[in-house]
Design goal:
six-stranded mixed beta sheet, seven-stranded mixed beta sheet, Metallo-beta-lactamase, Chain A, 13 strands, alpha/beta, Serine Threonine Protein Phosphatase 5, Tetratricopeptide repeat, single chain
Length: about 425
């Protein structure tokens, strides 16, 4: 048993923890799972098929581990890279072949063919338009020391609309499109190996379907994709992040329960929307199935189910949240100053925020601390309370996304360093 297959067993029995949710906490290793069938564990993963015509990558991993991917694969096979498939255009899935591109130029080999969904080029165009924004939100989400985001992309040579079957060197790869984490997502069925490569439709965590800082995601279609995968009877599941799942019963259970989580959130949210409930009520009244979240592959360590509810509202209901005061809102600092005046000053709001924190009412403590800071951002005491409240909120949350935003807010209020 190799490192990856050993990790796969540990993960299934619940020993994975946070290993798959951050570039610094991932097993970086390459392993042959079957003859001519290799798997790279990284941020993100890649499947490599050694065919008679050359190597085929299903997903290409990221710039984080491009060197390790090259070295691991080259110890295994010396063949040129024939085809690279992007499961979707997120940057952690499309930059892992850089060393292989350089090698091909040096050797005079034909250029690698890149295949992606037809919506992928538009995604890359959007990333160029919003380069600064994406750098800022990724620094906040992952606690990077400074904003950074790529400006140039390797666009696909060929695109897929709904389905496409590839035949390369004796290997059959059936590509299917379903919207889920992205609008350009492909997943792959490899019938000869009875294996599914899911991309980010499975990541060893609650589905990343509500990220508050990213573009629209699609919970209902995501669940449908998982149901389609389950119908295939796969014996191996290769995810976009985290280790493989080995064994038909385990694969089916993981797919079914992941779909069930998304389906119940979707059904409850739509039912309340159809009854006229405002977003705030829905956010608090949807029942999150805690038994599912206890599964080692559905823990809310990256995204949060409450964010999925909010994303469903955005998808089906737009941005108006049902509170008419939010339709044409005041400047936040003007409202904060009005509230502070009524409360007896920003310091009074901070004192109440500390009291709410002590009582365990973290949500209200954050609201009050935020009002106080926006009313008087130069008051050192107010800043200190805000920092304390948000740091406590970050420690209370399980999802990396919530932790990242709350920690960033706490740092904003910390005293300047000399």
């Amino acid at each position: 048993m190799g490192e990856i297959t050993e990790l796969a067993e540990r993960a299934w029995v619940g020993e994975l923890g946070e290993i798959n949710v951050h570039p610094g906490r991932v097993l970086v290793a390459f392993e042959e799972l079957a003859p001519h069938f290799g798997f790279m564990s990284a941020f993100s993963n890649a499947l490599v098929l050694d065919t008679e015509e050359g190597l085929v990558f299903v997903d290409t991993s990221s710039f984080f581990h491009a060197n390790q991917l090259f070295e691991g694969v080259r110890k295994w096979s010396k063949q040129r890279v024939h085809t690279g498939i992007y499961t979707h255009g997120h940057v952690d899935h499309v930059f892992g072949l850089l060393r292989f591109y350089e090698e091909a130029r040096e050797q005079g080999w034909p250029e690698t063919r890149i295949i992606a969904h037809r919506a992928c080029p538009a995604r890359f165009d959007r990333y160029v338009l919003t380069n600064g924004y994406n750098g800022i939100i990724n620094a906040r989400q992952f606690d990077f020391p400074k904003p950074t985001f790529p400006k140039e992309y390797r666009y696909p040579d060929e695109t897929v609309s709904r389905e496409r079957t590839l035949e390369v060197g004796g290997e059959t790869i059936e590509l299917r499109h379903d919207r889920g984490e992205t609008d350009d997502h492909l997943w792959a069925w490899l019938p000869h190996h009875k294996a599914i490569y899911t991309g980010d439709l499975f990541i060893w965590a609650a589905p990343n379907c509500g990220n508050p800082q990213k573009a629209q995601r699609y919970p209902r279609e995501w669940a449908q994709a998982l149901r389609k995968m389950d119908e295939l009877g796969a014996e191996t599941l290769l995810p976009g992040h985290g280790p493989p799942i080995l064994g038909a019963d385990r694969v089916s259970q993981a797919l079914r329960e992941s779909a069930e989580l998304l389906e119940t959130l979707t059904e409850q949210t739509l039912a309340m929307m159809n009854e006229g409930a405002p977003l705030n009520d829905i956010m608090h009244d949807v029942v999150v199935p805690e038994a599912l979240l206890e599964r080692p592959y559905l823990r809310p360590i990256y995204d949060d189910p409450r964010f999925i509810v909010r994303n469903l509202w955005r998808l089906y209901g737009g941005w108006y949240d049902g509170n008419p005061a939010h339709l044409m809102p005041s400047r936040e600092r003007d409202l904060a100053r009005a509230v502070a005046q009524l409360a007896g000053g920003a310091r009074a709001l901070s004192v109440e925020a500390e009291a709410r924190l002590a009582d365990g009412d973290l949500a209200v403590a954050c609201e009050l601390a935020e009002f106080a800071w926006r009313a008087d951002p130069d008051d050192a005491g107010v800043r200190g309370v805000r920092s304390t409240v948000y740091r406590a909120r970050a420690e209370h949350e399980s999802s990396l996304m919530a932790k990242g935003i709350f920690e960033a807010a706490a740092r904003d209020s910390d005293p300047p360093t000399e």
